[in-house]
């Protein structure tokens, strides 16, 4: 769930802050895939692409980082051009910018934009053997995306993996793929069922099973290259004891491999803005059917920081 909200940007947010640090923004409502775990199913009456005035509004604020999360930012040429212009505007205003993409249309992003990005997260969800089983097409499409981003001067390339019942057994294979493609960082996050428009066909795995999925792997030697996300809400959902599981995984926690994200990441300075100008707390943003009820309209008469302060209260 934390990976879907913000990708690896969650790792750069402070443990606790009352100041806006990171905005995650859905620039569009289109995707060229239909992943079984996708929570970003949403119908809106307004634009299918973020209003350029909202880009200007965000660029005028002083927060540190903006994560462009799609739906799929490179879904088509128009969206990719919009992303390039927004990245240019955000970096000119002194922000670091990251992008989450499935990589299928990586070629639509030119070198100037790729070099402006602090990092690119690619949602992978499978390994060398299993990639094709997860509706992502042939592995060659991912290899092409990685080659393209590297050739264009990408600073850091990260692999994002949502773990459900369908791919829990593929964790060693996912790590082999990360070695094969030399990702700078591989992130695992558990799939969490949310309230979305289209049914999600993926099945959640219990926290103990999720953690067992890593048990046979020597992860310590991968310190700095692998992060496993977990949080108390996940244990609560399955009525499992957090302390028993965490005790067994303490060495991984001390090595910085297992990371707990508790509560709503709004307390880590994170806020979501949608392509149709809604502002949401990160946990609210996971439940797209509730967007119209829980989202507040962007008010450009306030700064993004003021909007964030109101959202927290
Ligand atoms: S690539 Fe992302 S936005 Fe597209 S269907 Fe998959 S999870 Fe959803």
UniProtKB/TrEMBL annotation:
<protein>
    <submittedName>
        <fullName>Radical SAM domain-containing protein</fullName>
    </submittedName>
</protein>
<dbReference type="InterPro" id="IPR013785">
    <property type="entry name" value="Aldolase_TIM"/>
</dbReference>
<feature type="domain" description="Radical SAM core">
    <location>
        <begin position="27"/>
        <end position="158"/>
    </location>
</feature>
<keyword id="KW-0411">Iron-sulfur</keyword>
<dbReference type="InterPro" id="IPR058240">
    <property type="entry name" value="rSAM_sf"/>
</dbReference>
<keyword id="KW-0479">Metal-binding</keyword>
<keyword id="KW-0949">S-adenosyl-L-methionine</keyword>
<dbReference type="InterPro" id="IPR050377">
    <property type="entry name" value="Radical_SAM_PqqE_MftC-like"/>
</dbReference>
<keyword id="KW-0408">Iron</keyword>
<dbReference type="InterPro" id="IPR007197">
    <property type="entry name" value="rSAM"/>
</dbReference>
<dbReference type="Pfam" id="PF04055">
    <property type="entry name" value="Radical_SAM"/>
</dbReference>
């Amino acid at each position: 769930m934390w990976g879907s909200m913000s990708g690896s940007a969650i790792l750069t947010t402070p443990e606790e802050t009352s100041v806006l640090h990171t905005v995650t923004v859905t620039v569009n409502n289109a995707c060229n895939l239909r992943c079984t775990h996708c929570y970003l199913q949403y119908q809106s009456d307004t634009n299918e692409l973020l209003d350029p005035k909202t880009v200007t509004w965000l660029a005028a604020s002083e927060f540190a980082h903006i994560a462009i999360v799609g739906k799929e930012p490179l879904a088509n040429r128009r969206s990719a051009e919009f992303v390039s212009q927004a990245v240019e505007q955000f970096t000119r205003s002194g922000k670091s910018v990251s992008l989450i993409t499935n990589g299928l249309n990586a070629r639509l992003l030119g070198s100037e934009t790729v070099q402006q990005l602090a990092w690119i997260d690619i949602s992978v969800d499978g390994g060398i053997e299993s990639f094709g089983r997860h509706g992502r097409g042939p592995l060659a499409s991912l290899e092409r995306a990685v080659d393209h981003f590297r050739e264009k001067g990408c600073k850091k390339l990260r692999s994002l993996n949502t773990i459900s019942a369908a791919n829990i057994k593929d964790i060693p294979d996912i790590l082999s793929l990360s070695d094969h493609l030399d990702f700078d960082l591989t992130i695992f996050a558990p799939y969490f069922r949310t309230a979305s428009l289209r049914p999600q066909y993926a099945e959640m795995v219990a926290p103990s099973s999720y953690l067992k999925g890593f048990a046979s792997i020597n992860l310590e030697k991968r310190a700095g290259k692998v992060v496993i996300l977990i949080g108390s809400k996940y244990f609560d959902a399955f009525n499992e004891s957090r302390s028993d599981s965490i005790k067994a995984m303490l060495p991984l926690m001390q090595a910085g491999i297992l990371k707990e994200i508790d509560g709503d990441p709004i307390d880590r300075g994170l806020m979501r803005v949608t392509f149709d100008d809604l502002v949401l707390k990160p946990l609210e943003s996971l439940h797209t059917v509730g967007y119209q009820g829980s989202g507040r309209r962007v008010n450009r008469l306030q700064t993004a920081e003021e909007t964030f302060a109101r959202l927290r209260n």
